[in-house]
Each structure stands twice: as structure tokens, then as C-alpha cells.
Task: structure prediction
Amino acid sequence: MASNEKKSVQKMIAEKRKDKTSFLNSEKLAPKFLLLTALISILTTLGIVFTLLFETITFFTEISIWDFFTKKEWHPFAREASYGIAPLISGTLLVTVIAMIVSIPIGLASAIFLSEYASERTRRTLKPILEVLAGIPTIVYGFFALTFVTPLLKTFLPDLGMFNALSPGIVVGIMIIPMIASLSEDAMSAVPRSMREGALALGSTKFEVAWKVVVPAALSGIVASFVLGISRAIGETMIVTLAGGSLPSLTFDPTDQIQTMTAYIVQVSTGDAGYGTTIYYSIYAVGMTLFVFTLAMNMLAQYISRRFREEY
Result:
């Protein structure tokens, strides 16, 4: 009997050692696996950057970088081609400004309501509904802008063309409302309850607490959501391609037809230019310009978050 008990104890010890060895092996492998996944992300990013960089350098061996940034005409398919990117930049910025005019007030107001006025049940219902907008494919937004928003605007602006900057700007603004509302609401929810209660105890109204206490306390997160929204608007493709048109013009009139940087990339990528031509390499130069814009916006958002973050 004692011998059986001894064997049983030895067996348990052996199994325990085996389990411990397996656990230690998994502990050693886990950091290596996580490092590999991190390296894949970094290498992918570097691959994208180097691809853009090398092809952009090839483009600038044929076209003057000075002309690229100073000329005011973009006619790559003309007999005497002109590669001044200013019209594409103006079209992109025009759509972005319109989008932010639409999205910032609505997104911030939605965030204030969800954070300060809505009950827990209402918040759990409305926030997912609001975020459904973020899951709609952008091409659906593009057709919505072209077939619904533009005809609707034409009832108020009879001279408005089928392609214009106003319609895609409005729809891009609608598309990024969930981003601004969700990120701003998260920033406001992080503000301690004690700050609200202290302001209410001093006689402030609920709106004064929201606008003069909560919003300033969550300002870093709110501004970061605005900057990320701008970055998203700058990089939008299908909406501006379908509803904005393909006429690059240096204009700040929202009723004019425009072409954005992303729309031009789509136009050339569909096969309008042969591989190895100057027009082909131009999409990389435009893509690099777009990359610099979005990178600057993301870095600005991170700086604002770090610089003005409140610690509670």
C-alpha cells in the first residue's frame, strides 16, 4: 500500500515538473512571438515608406521638385504636361474644411450629450447606433453624395454642377462624425465625477458644468479627435472620387468641380497611364505628399494628447 502511494506521489511530482517545463517553454516563446508580430508591423510600414520614397525620387529625376510645388496647373495627360500639385492640394483642403465645418459641431455636441445628459441606458443604445456610421463602406457614402446630397443641394443652388466640392465635403463630414463623437465622449468620460459635483455644488447649471468644466478638462482628447478627423478627411478616396469630379483646378469655391490627391491616384491607377511613364510615377509623388500630410496630422494629434493631457 505504501509502495503504491509512493508511486502515486512520484507520478504527481513528474506530472507537475512536466507542466512546469511546458509553462516555462511557453513563457520563453511568448515574448519572441510578440516581438515577431511587432517587427512585422514595423517592417510593413518601412516597406510602404521606402516604396513611396524610391518611386517619388524617380519621378523627381524627370520633373523639377520646384515646379511640382510652385506651378498652379495639373495637366499630366496634356501634350505639354504640367505637374503643379497646387490644384490637387487645394481640392483636398477644400473638401477637408467643409467636412470639419460639418463634423466638429455635430460630433462635439453628440459627445457632450452622451457624456453629460444621456442616461446609461440611452448611452448604451445611441452610441452603437452612432458608430454604425463608421462601418458603412465609403463607396456607399460616395453614391449617397452623388445621387442624393447633390440633387438636394441643387434645389437650393440651381447652378450647382453634378460634380462639386460641397457635396463630398458634407458627406465626408457625416462619415467622420462617429470618430469625433466617440473619441471626445471617451475623453469627457475620463473626467472625474468629483469635478462635476464640485461645480454643481457651487451653483453651476448642467450646461455650464459641461461647457466650462468638462470640455476644458478633456480638451486634449477632444482636440486630438479633431486632428484625427482632419487626417481621415484628407485621406478619403471614394467619396471625393465619385462626387467631387476629376477636374483639377486651383479654386476655393465649393460649388466648383475639383480633384483631390486621392481621386487622382484612383484615376491613374485604373489604367490611364502605362507602367514606367512619368504619369505613372506621379501617383507616387502625390501619394508621398498625401502621406506627409496625414503623418503630420497624426503627429500633431499625439503631441496635443501628451502636451495638454490632464492627470487625475
